[in-house]
Design brief:
The protein is of the alpha+beta class. It has helices at about 25-40, 50-75, 75-80, 115-140, 145-155, 225-230, 280-290, 295-310, and strands at about 15, 40-45, 95-100, 160-165, 175-180, 190-195, 200-205, 205-210, 220-225, 240-245, 250-260. A seven-stranded mixed beta sheet has the order 1-2-9-6-11-4-3. It has a four-stranded antiparallel beta sheet with strand order 5-10-7-8, with no helix packed on it. The longest helix is centred in the middle third of the chain and has 28 residues, at about 115-140. It is elongated. About 30% of the residues are buried. Keywords: Ethylene biosynthesis, Iron, Metal-binding, Oxidoreductase, Vitamin C. Its EC number is 1.14.17.4. It comes from Arabidopsis lyrata subsp. lyrata. Pathway: Alkene biosynthesis; ethylene biosynthesis via S-adenosyl-L-methionine; ethylene from S-adenosyl-L-methionine: step 2/2.
């Protein structure tokens, strides 16, 4: 019997270096396809200083070793697992940093001025990338470029924060998840992840697919629940999880470009189908527009439905 190994999934890679040249239209199409059909993708040539990204990873790894590792392995969850007991807890050591609209970075213990400066520089560059990506997504959805940004803004602008996590070596990986199955609640997620240790998996086409470690400091992007709602289901959030491994401690620096807490979220009106109209009115319009593009016809029916409900 011949065993055929399942072909590894080729995750879409969007080269942002192509957006300013003759390949812009093709690159925009690839981005739309990745958002529409996948819900996750890699971005290369994103404009963020890769030496700075490397510095951030080393900083977080050293911070974990100095201040978090010992506490994690002394936790009740670790003790329980050593006795063969499992729980609903996630096998991770993590903390959250809020950047915008207000920062809590100064409240995190044992963060030196140098480390704070490094993180601030990275966040500043990443925020510019997040805004650029949101404009490109808005454009692909047929909306004004700043639609997502404005929809997320609330009274003080979109929220921007980072979940810093380490997924430590696990002696019984078959019993524990690093992070249980979920979709992300927010908008656009930008992940700087480990370049050696795997563990992240996304659910697509009825199967779990492993996401390989990120080489050359590419940014891994996935879309959250609020973008699915805003796009009226076109850009869907995708279920994912983190598996534990017996050898190696995985790093995850996930930054969230989210709606502000007081932002009012709803599907963009332009992306909604018409509703509240009489079918006979649709047939009347259809009789004179049957052989034309249906887009203007649907827009006309949308206005008619709104007028009838006013």
């Amino acid at each position: 019997m011949v065993l055929i190994k399942e072909r590894e999934m080729e995750i879409p890679v969007i080269d942002f270096g192509e957006l300013d040249g003759e390949n812009r239209s093709k690159t925009m199409s690839l981005l739309d396809h990745a958002c529409d059909k996948w819900g996750f993708f890699m971005v290369d040539n994103h404009g963020i200083d890769k030496e700075l990204m490397e510095k951030v990873k080393k900083m977080i790894n050293s911070y974990y070793e100095e201040h978090l590792k010992e506490k994690f392995y002394q936790s009740e969850m670790v003790k329980a697992l050593s006795e063969g007991k499992t729980s609903d807890a996630d096998w991770e050591s993590s903390f959250f940093i809020s950047h915008k609209p207000t920062s809590n970075f100064c409240e995190i213990l044992n963060i030196s001025v140098e480390r704070s400066k490094t993180m601030d520089e990275y966040v500043c560059q990443l925020h510019k990338f997040a805004e650029r990506l949101s404009k490109l997504m808005s454009e692909n959805l047929g909306l004004d470029q700043e639609y997502i940004m404005n929809a997320f803004s609330g009274s003080k602008g979109p929220a921007f924060g980072t979940k810093v996590a380490k997924y430590p070596e696990c002696p019984r990986p078959e019993l524990m998840r690093g992070l249980r199955e979920h979709t992300d609640a927010g908008g656009i997620i930008l992940l700087l992840q480990d370049d050696q240790v795997p563990g992240l998996e996304f659910f697509k086409d009825g199967k779990w697919f492993p996401i390989p470690p990120s080489k050359n400091n590419t940014i891994f992007v996935n879309t959250g629940d609020q973008l699915e709602i805003l796009s009226n289901g076109r850009y869907k959030s995708v279920v994912h999880r983190v598996m534990t491994v017996k050898h190696g401690s995985r790093l995850s620096i996930a930054t969230f470009y989210n709606p502000a807490g007081d932002a009012i979220i709803s599907p963009a009106p332009k992306l909604l189908y018409p509703s509240g109209y009489r079918f006979q009115d649709y047939l009347k319009l259809y009789s004179t527009t049957k052989f034309g593009d249906k887009g203007p016809r649907l827009e006309s029916m949308k206005k008619m439905g709104n007028a009838d409900s006013a």
